Automatic annotation (TrEMBL), chains A, B:
Gene3D superfamilies associated with the record: Farnesyl Diphosphate Synthase
GO cellular component, one term: cytoplasm
Single Gene Ontology BP annotation: terpenoid biosynthetic process
Name of the protein: Farnesyl diphosphate synthase
Domain of life (superkingdom): Bacteria
CDD domains: Trans_IPPS_HT
First-level EC class: transferase
E.C. numbers: 2.5.1.10
Cofactor section: Mg(2+)
Length: 295, 295
């Protein structure tokens, strides 16, 4: 199954995901400037980690890229909406993301708010209209996506992250915030892919554990890159966590301690993959990729 | 079937809807302040027109209040989210709604943005988890709701409404904006109720026509009240359209012309109801209620 190097695999799937994202948005009969704003953030060059994870998880079972692609782009739309709203002046007030002006800088605040609302809502339309999925699958995919991205998931994480600024939190509280803010969508990625691939319930349970640790790996590495990373590779200023007084792993554990913590998470993630019978899939390589990424 | 006066009917259903809204939110395991913010706008005392319309439409066919209530409150959550985002400083910048401080005034902008996102996302969770609906019904309800409230529906309407400020539009353009901004959710209300009640496709089609005119009636009356209404009854300042330089029916047609236009819409709405075989339901009385409301 692992017939390509990971880099080729990622590049090929990025292309497929990008093509389908364009396909879902280019022909939408909606006001021009609203569409431009949605497309602007969708095309701003993300790593497409979530849709690729979904596709890789689907391949680990009864893989069918055609069945997985629409849910994968719906997930990327949810992720993109969350970035647009997160960057707003009232939230993180970021002017630059991925080396480009953020949505509300490029357009305006009202358009950015509506483009985010539109991407969020449209993602549910895409999944519920997918002709290749059964009604039962669609209902489960909508249940899980609304849970993962809603007030019990990502929105709670964003809210707690905001509340945690300017106060110190424990490593346990930090893990909870990241699990909600980042981990829930990663869990959705792997469990949605597996669900479309007809994995068993116990396999999905193990994959959720895998995704939990993958989310923590992602976050530790994010924090480490903010200390040691290269501004040009990252497309954003380094040291911003420090100036935002954010609680981070390096701050709580030191840079060395954060690296050791990451290794523990990597081992736990790979163990969970073995239990899910998915340790011969690209998910295994993606774990190292998440852990070692430089942007 | 029409065993109560319309006022009693509306009051009873308002109570049922309010109870279920509280029920869906009170026990949510989410951050306190986020929940307070969601509840604040949900409890700010709306007329609950959309959920009542959904319930009335359901009753016109194989009515079952238990099957309709969850979709009804999901719809009210979508409506509430749209008001929270609409009131934001970057959008309409309203400090008061229904006689109370708007969400971002009572809490803060970031919380208001997230409370809106949370209500929008949670509404899809509620529908997809309703144990009384079939998977087929849930999929159709999610398809229709995401269409009605997304970039081809309500969000497009809000965007066009924003673009139309400070410029003159034709009556046709005005109708299109209102149809998207208000009409799409009203269409959802009646078609979702009918769908849950197993109405035929052609009945749903006629109901959509009914809802189209109902939306226009709603909007003409809104515009008329902004000219002739009572500030205390409305819970918002009158004359704000004039000072916002908004295109309105009274401005385009005069107050008398707007009243005549409303009568034409009422007749068309009632004709569509007859065609849908729903002219002996509360939908008929609700049409007059929409047309004659004073707040």
């Amino acid at each position: 199954m692992l017939h390509e190097t990971l880099d080729t695999y990622i590049e090929n799937n990025k292309r497929i995901v990008h093509h389908e994202l364009k396909n879902q948005l280019d022909y939408l009969p909606i006001p021009n400037r609203l569409k431009e704003s949605m497309l602007y953030s969708i095309e701003a060059g993300g790593k497409r980690l979530r849709p690729i994870l979904l596709i890789a998880s689907n391949e680990a079972y009864e893989g069918d890229p055609q069945k997985a692609i629409k849910t994968a782009v719906a997930l990327e739309m949810i992720h993109t909406y969350s970035l647009i709203h997160d960057d707003l002046p009232a939230m993180d007030d970021d002017d630059v993301r991925r080396g480009k002006p953020t949505n509300h800088i490029m357009f305006d605040e009202a358009t950015a708010i509506l483009a985010g609302d539109a991407l969020l809502t449209y993602s549910f339309e895409i999944i519920s209209n997918d002709p290749l999925l059964s009604d039962k699958q669609k209902v489960q995919l909508v249940q899980k996506l609304s849970y993962a991205s809603g007030p019990k998931g990502m929105v709670a994480g964003q809210f707690l992250d905001m509340e945690a600024e300017n106060k110190s939190v424990t490593i346990k509280e930090l893990e909870e915030i990241h699990d909600l803010k980042t981990g829930e969508l990663l869990k959705y990625a792997v469990s949605a892919g597996a669900l479309i691939g007809n994995a068993s319930q116990s396999q999905v349970k193990d994959l959720n554990e895998f995704a939990y640790y993958l989310g923590l790996i992602f976050q530790v590495q994010d924090d480490i890159l903010d200390v040691t990373g290269d501004q040009d590779r990252l497309g954003k200023p380094v040291g911003s966590d420090e100036s935002n007084k954010k609680s981070t792993y390096p701050k709580l554990l030191g840079t060395h301690g954060a690296l050791k913590q990451k290794e523990i998470y990597v081992e736990k993630a790979k163990n969970a993959l073995k239990n899910a019978n998915a340790d011969h899939s690209y998910l295994m390589m993606l774990t190292d990729y998440f852990s070692e990424r430089d942007h």
